[in-house]
């Protein structure tokens, strides 16, 4: 139930539909965002709204997709969806896709349609896992070429490997997958950036192949404010195994500790102290609270 913003209008949830010949459904050429709104003293507030909207427009630009709306309109649409659905916290999904106006790769009469939906969503990986950490498996799936050359775009077509990796990890009894890039370096989770801690220093893969995550940026800033050294570099699989701490970041996953990788305990095999500090600072920030 509730309302979804579709092509400039608020429509009832059930009526926000598209045709089976929707072009993006067939060929995967589309862009999207994952955004969260949090409860604050001043009501629901969307965290880093402008950064998400900017990334959405950059993704569209990379794909050569002409956006039918400007940034202000899509910002306003996101605020309206949260407000009109009476949500005090929410996960938002803006998405832009090619419609059913034409079929085949050569279609030249396609329209870009935009949608913003929002719903209540708690911890993506579970409350308890936020305290104790998750179990992760290095995936047998790597990012293919398109992902590496197009990794700045948060594009629908870039998520097949993520889905395959997550499916594989869950079938094998793990909570999440960690993907390597085509050169064998550690890249990211199915929908999260990854960090490790070693001897008090925070390391995360540089942006050669990982998505420029907004939570990643936020955590790097918080760590620097705490005087923690942050190094962005290529990371190998064995460096993860011998890390003192590890965690994922993402709008959905927030800051999720990793307690085990491929059956090997990370550090003490539970949420580490630096992870805990950054996680709690992240939650203070998104809820607009002064740090304790
Ligand atoms: N990496 C991938 C592949 C993602 O899909 C996401 C989710 O948006 C992230 C990383 C984390 O990015 P952000 O913190 O902006 O949500």
UniProtKB/TrEMBL annotation:
Transferase found in the keyword field: yes
GO MF, one annotated term: branched-chain-amino-acid transaminase activity
Chemical reaction(s) catalysed: L-leucine + 2-oxoglutarate = 4-methyl-2-oxopentanoate + L-glutamate; L-valine + 2-oxoglutarate = 3-methyl-2-oxobutanoate + L-glutamate; L-isoleucine + 2-oxoglutarate = (S)-3-methyl-2-oxopentanoate + L-glutamate
Domain of life (superkingdom): Bacteria
Membrane recorded as keyword: no
Co-factor requirement: pyridoxal 5'-phosphate
InterPro entries membership: Aminotrans_IV (IPR001544), Aminotrans_IV_CS (IPR018300), Aminotransferase-like (IPR036038), B_amino_transI (IPR005785), BCAT-like_C (IPR043132), BCAT-like_N (IPR043131), BCAT_family (IPR033939), Class-IV_PLP-Dep_Aminotrnsfr (IPR050571)
Name of the protein described by the UniProt record: Branched-chain-amino-acid aminotransferase
Species whose genome carries this gene: Marichromatium gracile
Gene: ilvE
């Amino acid at each position: 139930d509730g309302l979804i913003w579709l092509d400039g209008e608020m429509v009832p949830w059930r009526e926000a539909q598209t045709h089976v010949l929707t072009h993006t459904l067939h060929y995967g050429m589309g862009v999207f965002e994952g955004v969260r709104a949090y409860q604050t003293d001043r009501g629901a507030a969307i965290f880093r709204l402008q950064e998400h909207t900017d990334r959405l427009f950059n993704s569209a630009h990379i794909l050569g997709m002409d956006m039918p709306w400007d940034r202000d309109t899509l910002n306003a649409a996101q605020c309206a969806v949260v407000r009109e659905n009476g949500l005090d916290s929410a996960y938002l999904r803006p998405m832009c896709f090619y419609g059913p106006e034409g079929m085949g790769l050569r279609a030249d009469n396609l329209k870009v349609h935009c949608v913003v939906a929002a719903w209540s969503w708690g911890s993506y990986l579970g409350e308890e896992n936020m305290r104790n950490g998750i179990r992760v498996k290095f995936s047998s799936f790597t990012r293919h070429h398109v992902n590496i050359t197009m990794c700045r775009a948060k594009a629908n077509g870039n998520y097949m490997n993520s889905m395959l990796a997550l499916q594989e990890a869950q079938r094998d009894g793990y909570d999440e997958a960690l993907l390597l890039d085509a050169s064998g370096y550690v890249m990211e989770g199915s929908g999260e950036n990854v960090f490790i801690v070693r001897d008090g220093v925070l390391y995360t893969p540089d942006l050669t192949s990982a998505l420029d995550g907004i939570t990643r940026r936020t955590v790097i800033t918080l760590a620097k404010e705490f005087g923690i050294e942050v190094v962005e570099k290529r990371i190998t699989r064995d460096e993860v195994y011998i890390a003192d701490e590890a965690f994922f970041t993402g709008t959905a996953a927030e800051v999720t500790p990793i307690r085990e990788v491929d059956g090997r305990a990370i550090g003490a095999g539970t949420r580490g102290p630096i992870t805990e500090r950054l996680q709690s600072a992240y939650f203070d920030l998104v809820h607009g609270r002064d740090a304790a």
